[in-house]
Amino acid sequence: MSVPMKSNLGNSPALDIFNLVLQGKANSRRDIAKILSMRPNTVSDCVSHLVEKGIVWEHTEKGGGRGRPVVTLAPNANKFLCIFIQIIGLSAVVTNINIAGQELWSQTSELPAESSTADILEAFKKLHQQALQQVPSQSTVAALVFSLGGILDIKNKVWQFSSRWPNMQDLDLKQVHGAAPYSLHLYKNINLELSAHDLKRTGNEETTLLVHWGQGIGCAVSPTPAETNQNAGRFGEIGHWKLSRTANARCHCGNAGCVETIAALWALQPHLKAKWPDIADDELTIAPDLQSLDLLGLPVFTDALNAVSNVITNLNFLLFPQTILVSGPFVQNPFVWAELNRTFLKDAMISGVDTPKLQVATRSSELERLGALGKIMPDVLFRHLSEIRQDPG
Ligand SMILES: [Zn+2]
Fold it and tell me: What CATH code would you report for 13-78?
C-alpha cells in the first residue's frame, strides 16, 4: 500500500506527477501527459522542477538503434524521511521511513511497566539520536513523529497518560525533539490507523468508526466530528465511560467504574492467566493464544463482551456510521467475533435504518506509519516544490 500525495496546502501538478512516478504508474513524460491529460510542455516543465528539486531521477537509455533516446523517470523516495516513534506492546520502536513508506532502519527499546516519566523520556531521546545517526547522507529529515495511545495533549505535544505505564505522567515530547531543524508531530495511534484505512478507500465520504478492544479501549471516527477535540487529542476515550455496576473497580486512569475495568485486556488478564497460565502478556503476542481458547466459557469474559457490545451499539446510535471496524486481540477469536456480531446486531436494530456490519480490522504498526506519512509528506513535498516556483532564477 502506498501513500497518495495530496497536499492540504493546495493543488500542485508537479506533486500529482511525482505521485504517479512514486506509485509506479508512469515512468515517462508521455505516460504522464496521457494519464493526467496535461499538455506535454507543462509535463516537461514540472518534471524539470522535480528533477531539479531532487525528488525525481532521470535515466537516459541511449538505445542501440534509431530513434530518440528513451528517458525514464524514477522517484527518489529517500529524499525525505520521517523519524517515527510508536509503541508496540511494552516497547518503543523508532523507524526511519521514506516517502514511499519503506522502512530504512528500525530499533526497539523495551519500556518496563514500572518506567517513570524520566525513564521513558531518556529512552525516547536515545532512540531519536540513534535514528539520526542512521539517516543516509543524501536524505533530509522532514519530521519527528510520535504515534501514542492513552491521553494526549496534541497542541502542547505532551503525552499525559497511558494505562501501560501508570508511573509516567505529562511527558513533554518537545524535550525529545530539542531544537531540531524539522517539525515535531504527535498523533493518537488509533487516529493514524483509521486514516490509513481511509487512504485505502480514497474518495469515500462515508462515516467510519474504528473501535479498538485491547490493552485499552478506544475509538476514532472519520470524518472527524469534532475537530477541536481531535486536535487536543482527547476524543473517543470510551474505555473510561462509566458503568455503575463496576463502581468500585479502580481504573488505570485514576477513576473508578470505567468500562476498561471490566473489559480491557489489562483488567481481564488476571482471570485469563488463572485459567490459562501460559498465555502471553502483550496485546500483540496474546492474539494467537486467544484465538482458540473457550473465552465465552468464562463469565467475566462474556460480561466484558457485553460491555464492549453495548459501547459499540451506543456509538452506532450516536454516529450512524456506514462502516464499523473493530481491532484488537479478542476479535481474532472466531467465537468471540460471532458473539459480538450477534449481540450488536440484536441491540443496534432500528426500524428503517441499515445496521452496519462489523468488520475485523487488523491492527498493525505499518498502518500507523502510513497514516502519519499521508498526513505529513504531501505538505512537506508541496512546500519543497513551491519554493522553486517562487525562485526567480
Ligand atoms: Zn478509566
Answer: 1.10.10.10
